[in-house]
Structure prediction request, 313 residues.
Amino acid sequence: MQEILSFEGHLLEIEKEIERADNPDSLKALKRRLSLEKKNFSENLSPYQKVLLARHPKRPHLSDYIEGLFSNFIELSGDRLFADDQAIIGGCGIIGKKKVMVIGQEKGRSTQEKIKRNFGMAHPEGYRKARRLMELSARFGIPVLTFIDTSGAYPGIGAEERGQSLAIAESICASFNLAVPIISTIIGEGGSGGALAIGVCDRLLMLEYSIYSVASPEACAAILWRDQSKTEEASCNLHLTASDLSRLGIADQIIKEPIGGAHWDYDKITRELKSVLLSNLKELIGMDKGKLLEKRREKFRKIGVFEEGIKVW
Prediction:
């Protein structure tokens, strides 16, 4: 791990000591120490530190999960209107023995790939591609699995000229009318309408250190205080962590990450995610279509509901 966050640097130092260990006793002691340090580390993270973990440069991306979760994956491209947006990957695959449609954002790893993927920020054609694949899956009765990892939809002039807000709205609308199971998993950062465009679902899963919010902490700090030093305070007030969203009834299930974060063990988090996805698919497949749509709409109607108090003088 060449890229490391400042607050997890001590874990990397122990890793280096393990690599240099030259006898079994010291190796065993160092591994035990690393395990304990990771546990302490995981139990004492602040909301802002979880934000940084969600954006970790070594965190598994959609392409990593596709490789580990699905067999016979076939990528499908294009929106049939303008172009193929590389920020969103879509295609058919098999998980367990179940055929599924896979749709999600890919940020890219190297500099060249990040540019190609536009850092996971989709253009309108990306969301139109997503909608096209959702409708294709409904035609053949295939469940949809979406994977969310974006700071938001691309806000450039060209994207706005080509109807960014309309593309997002149409994707959301299509999701509410899709008569097949939809499971959305936030694998990293779920930001703004760019995340919600493929986030309407029957089950919302969140990795333990993923985040989901209407705006980034940096944007919130700029809007409310016009002060970037308030970013950490904004992270607390936004209630954007998996534990917060589970408590608020938005996230249906939290997927436990390896101690220290998903980037410490790709295989372990992939196995855990696969198990949870298969379990949820088993529950949803076969459900009456009318009931499925009714429960999906009811789930989102409950979000943000509040009771208005009457002030008595």
About this structure: DSSP finds 14 helices and eight strands in the chain.
